[in-house]
Design a protein that fits this description.
This protein is of the alpha/beta class and 192 residues long. The protein has five helices and seven strands. The chain has one domain: P-loop containing nucleotide triphosphate hydrolases (Rossmann fold). The structure holds guanosine-5'-triphosphate and magnesium ion (MG).
Length: 192
Amino acid sequence: MNIQNTVFIKSAASQSAFIRDGKPVIAFAGRSNVGKSSVINCLVRRKNFARVSATPGKTAHVNYFLIDGRVYLADLPGYGYAKVSGSEKARWAELMESFFASGDITAGVQIVDARHKPTADDVTMAEWFHGTGTPLTIVANKLDKLKKSEIEPNLQLISDTLSANDNDIIIPFSAETGFNRDILVRKISEFF
Ligand code: GTP
Ligand code: MG
């Protein structure tokens, strides 16, 4: 698998636009501003591939990328941005419910902030992934912002709060420095 051979396919704003062509789908989820676009950019080794946005909470679409012609990366819209209106939140929830109900997720990657206890929205998202029965990879991003002594307890708190099970793995990660990029690439390659 050559993850640098990743191309944008399309942006889906509703269920009818979701891709169902039999290829595996790896869904990437995360709170707004957690660094989801940065993680994707880090994976493909391109600076502005998935846009690092200045206006969080403005992307209520599922963005599909195709990795090496064989596996989709579905970039789910960020959640939890405080300034989003009620109607935008409802639209997000409807889109996510239909996405998870569509039942064709091969694996989930949930990006959380390594510095903090996961939010209630993070917990809900992890429950949605667990509900599909697919393996969940938890990426604890922004690790570069942690002191060494904080790493172990924070990872434990993240794992406990998201009720990680034996099939899940948690990867301490930094999109900024590329720390553990190779581990995440290897994990994704399991779905090829
Ligand atoms: P939205 O698409 O707006 O929901 O945000 P996002 O989750 O895609 O986050 P994005 O990649 O746009 O990054 C948000 C901010 O966090 C940017 O200022 C990034 O530079 C910063 N950031 C992302 N990853 C890291 C990291 O690993 N370490 C540090 N220190 N900063 C990071
Ligand atoms: Mg983004």
